Each structure stands twice: as structure tokens, then as C-alpha cells.
Amino acid sequence: MDTAALKPPSHVDLAITGMTCAACAARVEKVLNRLPGVTANVNFATETARVNTASANIAPDALIKAVEKAGYGAHLKTTQTRDDEKRQHVEAYRGEFNRFVISALLTAPFLVQMIGMLVGRHEGMSPWLPLWLQLALATPVQFWIGKRFYVGAWHALRGGGANMDVLIALGTTMAYVYSAAVMAWSLPHHVYFEASATVITLVLLGKVLEMRARAKASSAIEELMRLQPQTATVERNGERVDINVADMQPGNIFIVRPGDSVPVDGSVLDGESAVDESLLTGESLPSAKRAGARVYAGTINQQGLLRCTATGVGQQTALAAIVRLVEDAQGSKAPIQRLADVISGVFVPVVIAIAVVTWVGWWWLGGDFTAATINAVAVLVIACPCALGLATPTAIMVGSGMGARAGVLIRNAAALETAGGINTLVLDKTGTLTEGKPVVTDVIAAATLTPATPATRDEVLAVAAALEQGSKHPLAQAVVAQARERGLLLEPIADFRSLSGLGVQATIAGTTAALGSPPFAAELGLALPGAEIAALQRAGKTVIFVARAGRALGVIAIADRLRPTTPAAIRALITLGVTPVMLTGDNALTAEAIAREAGIAQWHAGMLPQGKASHVQTLHTSGRKVGMVGDGVNDAPALASADVSFAIGAGADVAIQTADITLMRNDLMSVVDAIRLSRATLTKIRQNLFFAFFYNALGIPLAAAGLLNPVIAGAAMALSSVSVVGNALLLKRWRPVQSSNRGQ
Questions:
Q1: Does this chain's domain 229-316 share its CATH topology with 420-434+562-664?
Q2: What pLDDT, on a 0 to 100 scale, did the predictor assign at position 248?
Q3: CA-CA distance, 581 to 312, in Å (whole number)?
Q4: Which of 143, 260, 279, 464 has the most Cβ atoms closer than 10 angstroms to its Cβ?
């Protein structure tokens, strides 16, 4: 697999700092999208902005300045900054935790009063906790511990937006100032110092738990990066020395001892061993390695010593490509998130308006200034835009990470969402349903078929191999391999022409030669023995003719075994409600034999590449949600036409570049895993969005009606985001279909 095929398109990734809720993300996204030619997606959960500047002539500095003008921080996200960001996140967590501990200690004396409020009594004038002590405890919580809310609110307002910090700062300040006024003028009212202090403490607790949960949600990338060792043993001047992996260059000779991790991508020069590639591909069985085999960074050598040459280092390894894909998927947005984004963008102003209406309504209609103030505070502190902002991206983060562990690489969130909704799966035959390692089974020379034009089996093979020697198609490679096994000389060719879906033509030693399907032979006016060819095709074999100088030399039959897991995968797809449809360029008799063995009821033979794409469009027209699986160049048009496309990882680079989901394992059961994972992720997203909408839709009216006091409202707000992230983390329970069950 060429790792260049997994490189993302040109874009700029920014790490965003200072965001505290989904409203912040919506504000940053809006500011960036105002720039000419810029399309940006801001992900609150990953604190990143994916900015596409393909149609804009704009420097990264201009993007950063636009973000800073909106009141937030930004810097380019690179592989060099990843470790720095990790350290910053750890330091931020420690700082947040320490502030929470101090705030909790200062708030602890209010516990009795808080419990009293829960049972319907208010002990704000309690002699054991004098008002001056309440003020002394609440003030540092409000203005020292709570400084972050004022700073965040100021930055948001200065940038022309409003976020959760505005709600917290406004709500707690109202409770604090009201209580301070009651104390200063000895008014005959209750004080609510415990409300302001407790709300800030609970919000901090929620942030600490949220940061911890989000770190777990994004752990997939860290786990992948830990696969690559820090040092490598290389050969230099006849000696073996240990060097930093970052210093390795293509062409370096390196040694992998038993039990060591492979440091970079490479090709085996000497030695034999079995390498555990499960953490990279999801395949549980070790892969046998010998001279000429590929090895990948992060995989584990189990047995013998391997001597290899480096072919991919740094960001050119398969492991780095997988990390990029996972980061892309985690930083992208699913279509289901759009409604939440729209609501997040106007959430805070609407909540403030509801709080004002609550305050005016209670004071004007009820004449109770205290109740009006406290109920307005409750509205402000119970509202939580964070839950809306975290509902989708946290589930995407966990889902895409679990997919990577199972060898299912998801390009973006839209693909992850769409995969679960398909009800029809279009399948190529060669390399998808079959092993993609065909072998020549029959070579029938024209001397046997038509004695008037004698030819030998070796001549048939030699001409066929000469025509196919530059092709990477599995059938072509089977012909070339058979010719080389027989020690045949492959003549040079000229004027090569490939006729898609039919065959090839070229000039060999001044004479025209051709190879291809029986229909192509008919176009060329060549007569072939129909009965013999039909018998071979009914046995599930692919038949090609070979011709030179205007006469048929003979035919070659090639067989490609069905993958052992294909029938089980087809049954699993049908159980999931997905109808498999096989499209192949092969003849009808061969296609029928393969479809029958695989358990596929719907199939179409003789399909050219554009015909496959047209059939996908026809399925769309009939209202089907179509997925497509392929591994060859001829599959690319159909892959591009499908709602979601899957590429076998060992397939052609163009198929991988076109596909939405790359399957690292050459196993159709991986498609089943991808669909199951998509549906599990969508279930979590829907649960999270329902909870976020339901929580705010129920909590805000209850607070406005005076049925919640600020402490309970603050606790509910603090726990709402944690609940959403915690629910997404339950996706870690998802498991791919066990390897032991794949062939059953």
C-alpha cells in the first residue's frame, strides 16, 4: 500500500485555545468563514479548526489574526507541536483541578446551608456562619477562582459573540452582588453567597471531569503514536548502532530483533519471521515475512531476526498516514451536527433573553425581587451549550479511533455517518470477493483447438505475458508469474493500447498482438471454441484469448479462489439489512459461479468501469442508499458514484484515494465491521443530541418557573457535558467481528 494515497488534501490545521463551549466554536467558525475563499470547520471537542484555503490566497498568519480578533488564541497544528499541546493539556488539567480543590475547600462551609435549601429551608442568617464569613469565603471563589469566566466572557463579548462564560459570569455575579447588597444595607432578605460559590465550584468540577473524559475519547491517536519505537538499530560502516528514529533516512539498513517493534516502513532484505500487525491492521494472525516482504512501523516482530531497508520514514510511514486519517476524521463534522451548530450559534443570546424575561416577569407579576433575581440566575446557570457542542464530535472521536484499531480507516465524519445508512452494497469480484491472487489453471494452444493454425502452450503464455508484463492487475500478474515459472523469455513490446473492460493490444517484433475477453476476440473477427470456453467459465474460471498477426494462438483460463470469509460476510450483510450486488467485468458464466458460491443473489457480468458507475446511479434513482467496495483502477468511477465507498487496503492507490473508508485488512468482513461501527456511533450521537436538547428544553423552563434553585441548576449544568462525553465513551465497548468467527 502506498502511504501517499492516504495523504489529506491541502488545508491548514489550527489549534484553537480559549474555547469554553460550543458557542465559542460557532463564533470562531463564523469568523474564519467570513474570510474570502475560506471554508472552515471548528471542532469544539478536539479544539481544532480545519481550514480549507484551496481557493483563497491567504496566509496562515491572517487566519490566526482573525481568530485572535474574535477573542481566542490559535497556532498552526503540526507534528512538532503535538507534544507541546499534550503537555499544555496536562498542565491545563492540573491547573483546573487545583483551582477546583481550592474552590471546593472554600465552598465546603456552605454545605449545611445548601442541604437546608434542598429540604426547603434557608439558613443564610445562621449564627454559626456569620455573613462576614460568608462574604469572605465567597469573594475569592467569585473573583479569583472565577476570574476565568470573566476573562472568557470579556474576550467573547469583545469579539462580538457570547458564550457559556457570559452565562456563568452574569448569573453568579447577580447572586453575589444581590447578597452583598443585602448584607451592606441590612435588608430583610436572604443572601445567596452559597449559590454563587457553589455554582462556580460545580462548573469547575464539570470542566475537570469533562477534560478527563475528552482525553479518554481522543486516546486513539496517542495509542497509535506510541506504537512507533523511539530508537532503531541500523548498520553503519559494518557495525550496528542505535539511533533516534527521527534521524532515519530512506535507504538506511535496519535490524529488527525478536520482540522489537519495527521502527519505520521497510522492505525485508534477509531473514524470516512472523510479525504482529494487529494494532495497525486489526488482523489478529501474525503475517509471515521473508525477503521482499513489506514491514510497517509500529508492528511487532515475534520470532526471527529481520534485516530491512527503510522505504518510508517520518510522515511517510503507513502509521503516520493512519494517524493523519484518524485526526482528519476526528476533526471533521458529521451532517447530523448541523442543527446543533445552528442552535449553538444563537444559544447564549436566547438564554440571556429568557433570563431577562424571567426576571421582569417574576418582579412585575409577583412583586418579589428576590425570587425574580434567583430564578433569573437559575436560568443562566442551568443552560448548557457545551452538551450540544460535544454530542456529535465526542462520539466521532471515539468511533473513528475504534475503527482505526480494527483496521477500518474512516476519512471523515460524513463517511462514518453515511456508512450506517446503506441498504445496498455493490461489490467488485476480483480482489474483493476473491483473494485477488489468481493462478493460471489451463493453457490451451490453438494447435489443440484448430490444427490449421498450430501454436504451442509456451507460445501462448509467452505472448500473453509479454502483453501483460507492465500491468498490476491480478489476472495479468498471474499470467506473468506462470510464464516466468516456466522460464519463458518475455519479448519487448511497443505501441501498447489498453481497451478498458476488453483487453490490450501491442506490437511484438513488428507484428500486432492482442489479449482479452472472448467478446473482444469477436470484435477482432477471431473465432474461438465456444464449448470449451463455456465449460471453463462454468467452473468459475476467467478465460482470455491470445492472438498474434491476426490469428488466435489459444486461450488461457485463470481461477481466483473466493476469500474464506466472503460467504460469512455476505450472510452478515444480509442480516444487517444490506443487499449485496456483485458487478464484474467477467463473463456471465464465471460471475454466476462466483455469486452462487458466495451466496449473492443479485449480480451483473460484463460490466465496463463506466457501466458499474451507471449501475450505481441506477440504484440511487430507485431510492437505494448505496455503498461500493472495490480494489482496482476500474472500480474508481463506481466508488466515486456511491454514497459511501470502501477500498481494500492492499488495492490500487487510485481506489484508496477515491474511497471514503479504507480497509487495512483484505477481508470483506471489515465492511461489516464498518457498518456496525457506524450504526453504533450514530446511536450514541442520537442519544447525546436527544439528551442535550431535552436537558435544555426541560431545564430552562423549570428554572424560569422557579422550580429549581441556582445550586441544583449549577450541578445539572456541570454534569450535563460530562454525561454526554461519558455516553460517547461507552463506544469503547464496541468490538469487531472476532477473527475466529470470520470464516464461519
A1: no
A2: 93
A3: 37
A4: 464
The candidate with the shortest Cα–Cα distance to 428, out of 621, 659, 620, 622, is: 659
Other Cβ atoms within 10 Å of 1 Cβ, number: 21
Of 124, 154, 164, 148, the C-alpha closest to 26 is 164
- Is the CB of residue 16 less than 8 Å from the CB of residue 67? yes
Read off the amino acid at residue 114.
M
Q: Are the C-beta atoms of residues 514 and 524 closer than 8 Å to each other? A: yes
Q: Is the pLDDT of residue 443 over 80?
A: yes
Closest CA to 628 of 610, 615, 646: 646
3-state helix, strand, coil in the chain (%, to 5): 55, 20, 30
Q: What is the model's pLDDT at position 112?
A: 64
The DSSP element (H or E) to which 341 belongs, if any, is helix 338-366
Report the percent of the chain where pLDDT is more than 90.
34
Q: Where are the domains of the chain?
A: 1-228+319-407+677-744, 229-316, 420-434+562-664, 439-559
For 276-330, the pLDDT digits (tens) are: 887 666 666 788 899 999 998 888 998 889 999 999 898 888 888 777 777 777 7
Confidence band for 126, pLDDT divided at 50, 70 and 90: very low
Position 624: which residue type? R
Whether the pLDDT of residue 252 is over 60: the answer is yes
The yes/no answer on whether domain 229-316 falls in CATH 2.70.150.10 is yes
Residues involved in catalysis: 428
Q: Which of 13-17, 41-45, 140-144, 490-494 has the highest mean pLDDT?
A: 140-144
Rounded to whole angstroms, how far apart are CA atoms 711 and 717? 10
Give the separation between CA 282 and CA 64, rounded to whole angstroms.
Answer: 39
CB 146 within 8 A of CB 200: yes
pLDDT band with cut points at 50, 70 and 90 for residue 253: very high
Residues 58 and 35: their CA atoms lie apart, in Å, by 9
Taking CA atoms, 45 is separated from 10, 15, 30, 77, 504, in Å, by: 23, 12, 17, 15, 52
Q: Which CATH superfamily is domain 420-434+562-664 in?
A: HAD superfamily/HAD-like (3.40.50.1000)
What would you report as the CA-atom Rg of the chain, rounded to the nearest whole angstrom? 33
Taking the CA atoms of 692, 694, 700 and 706 in sequence, report the sign of the dihedral they define: negative
Amino acid at 643: D
Range 507-539 burial, b when 16+ CB lie within 10 A, else e: ebeeeebbbbbbebbeebebebbeebbeebbee
Can you tell me the distance from the alpha carbon of 487 to that of 21, in angstroms, rounded to the nearest whole number?
69
Looking at per-residue pLDDT, the higher value among 607 and 688 belongs to 688
CATH number, domain 439-559: 3.40.1110.10
Q: For 500-542, write each residue's pLDDT tens digit.
A: 668 899 999 889 999 998 888 888 888 888 888 888 888 888 8
How big is the chain, counted in residues? 744
* Claim: this prediction has a pTM higher than 0.85: no
